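Collaboration report, partner site 2.

Our partner group contributed sequences for two proteins of shared interest, and the home lab folded both. The records are reproduced in the order in which they were received, starting with the first partner submission.
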Amino acid sequence: ERTCRSTNVLAHTLHGINHAVTATLHIIMGYIQPVDICTFSSPSKLLRFGFSAMFGFGARTLALAEKHRWMPSNQRRDFAVIKTLASLKPEECELSFLPLKNSLQGSQENVQWHTIQGHFLNVSIMAIPCLCSMAPRGLAPNTRLNNGSMALIVVRNTSRAEFIKHLKRYASVKNQFNFPFVETYAVQEVKVQPRTKIGCNTEENVYLHATSAEGNYPWNIDGDLMEEASEVHVR
């Protein structure tokens, strides 16, 4: 069973508690729970499988933390969050997604791709609710374990203060999506196409290259760092 790195979102989501003994007992007792899992692909190859992904703030925070692995884990995480917030910048990209078919739409042929463009501070794609200590209700509380859907959570560009308010909501009982700059969609597939770096000014290039290899954009896949330069197709 994969626990999805330090936050243990898979185990926490499956068992309702972040407790190793509980997870072990479920395994011993033969408890089986189907869960949705995503594939992440570039135009030319399959990149990996995963349950959750973040592009933008969540990915750049992880990329910065990975460059400071000599620091204790909690200190490294806090440092990366503060540093990324201090240099907060949106990603310009195009998001194409196939909405989840509802019972009134009939056949799959009637479901059309939607596209949105703009500057986004963070894009999250979650196949499971992703409960963790930092988000007791889940990073995507409206998602189910195995209904074939993903939650697409889009945070458009806003002020640093408003973005921090949004982040703090994850740790509370308040709705973290109740902001005018946050959009949520139930989807079957998502394509994320970052803009080319051609034309970036010097300050933007410093920000882009400080957290990832040149030519690549960082992704946070279940707490693992993935870097990819081209479009990523999630389904």
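Second partner submission, folded after the first:
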Amino acid sequence: MAVLFLAAGTTHLFASFLGHHTYGPVVLIGLGAAVIAGSVVRAWWVGRHGHAAHHAPHLEARRGAGSARQVEVRPAQPPATESREEDEQVLWRIRTTVQDTPGSLAALCSSLADRAVNILALQVHPLADAVVDEFLVGAPPRVTAGELAAAIGSAGGTGTWISRADAHDLVDIPTRMLTLAVRAAEASELPAVLRGLLGECEIRWMPAPADLPQEGEPDGTTMRLPDAEGGVLVVSRPGLPFTPAEFARAHALAEVAIRLGPREPRWTLMLPNGAEVTIRRAGRQDLAAVTAMHRRCSPETLYRRYLAHKREVSQLDSLLSARFGYTLVANTPDGDVVAMANLMWDGSTAELGVLVEDAWQRQGLGTALVRRLIAFAADADIDTVYAIAQPGNTATIRMMQRLGMPLDRRIDNGTLIITVHVAHAAASSAVPRQP
């Protein structure tokens, strides 16, 4: 109100002043012209600068985008080789023990994420007073095992175990267990199945002690499992203790092998001379027929196979035992064994041996047996298979060459050792697959 009264009083005083002077109209006309000129100038100014202000946000956005491109693209653009390395990932398996408290897993994940490590799979193994976390991770090539261990340690992990992994480890646990259970239905494959579940480990067979309990639990790095053919399988994994979950899974696979019993796959093979043989899995029940075949073989044939002129019956019994390897035999329609091939494993390595009776040689029978053994080795996650022969044993050399797989040869103390890297061949689909 005060402003209104002040404006009214000022206007009245100004009008009274003009009314008493002769130049009053001139002043009014001048003020009107000034107001009109001021309005025109203001309209021009607002029209010009208002238009610029309307487009200013778009211009600033463009300038901002341009600046971002300069900062983001030019200085930070890596070389092509470096970009490809960042796109690649190295697979690692990590196992560590942490306190069973809220946030412990989150701390591990955060520490790995700080090093651009991607967690692909996770298993949690509960213990009495702690938790074992097992990760399958993908890390940039620049990240080393030592850096991974440091990241885990800084987040509270102890007893950390780290090893390289491969694409086979990407299979989820339920799928892997179902696959292993199918293979465990063949009791003789149980050692290979256990290695597929537990990784690198040592498996030995021993007679079952009288005081062995029906149900047990792992003793640190060793567990004992019932064998389908009697006795006990002693599984050892130095440096990496078994968890209760691993023991439960291994025991379940052993029970599958016991309950379903052995299966005996058979293949019928027609030889170039028109004869027909049956290839099948052998066992200790074939000891008499295998011994008879050895008696029919010439000393030269036996020497090429064993680098000795004879083989004791007890040694043949070991070759036929499913606890030590995988053996195939070829039977004629009348039941005679005319060929035998053995795959005797030691961890992830296996020795290959083939014996074909003299009258049945040069018919491709040995090659057919070896092809099936190599396919079995690939399924059993055996990395390398090697054969021992004399340097002049051209039959064995040609038989291995017919596999169509890369071979390594070396001479050790006058003995030729031919090695097949099954894992590499399996990755390149070079492993022979026959029905």
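Feedback sent to the partner group on the second submission included the following. The first strand starts at residue 90 and ends at 99. Confidence is low (pLDDT under 50) at residues 51-78, 427-435.
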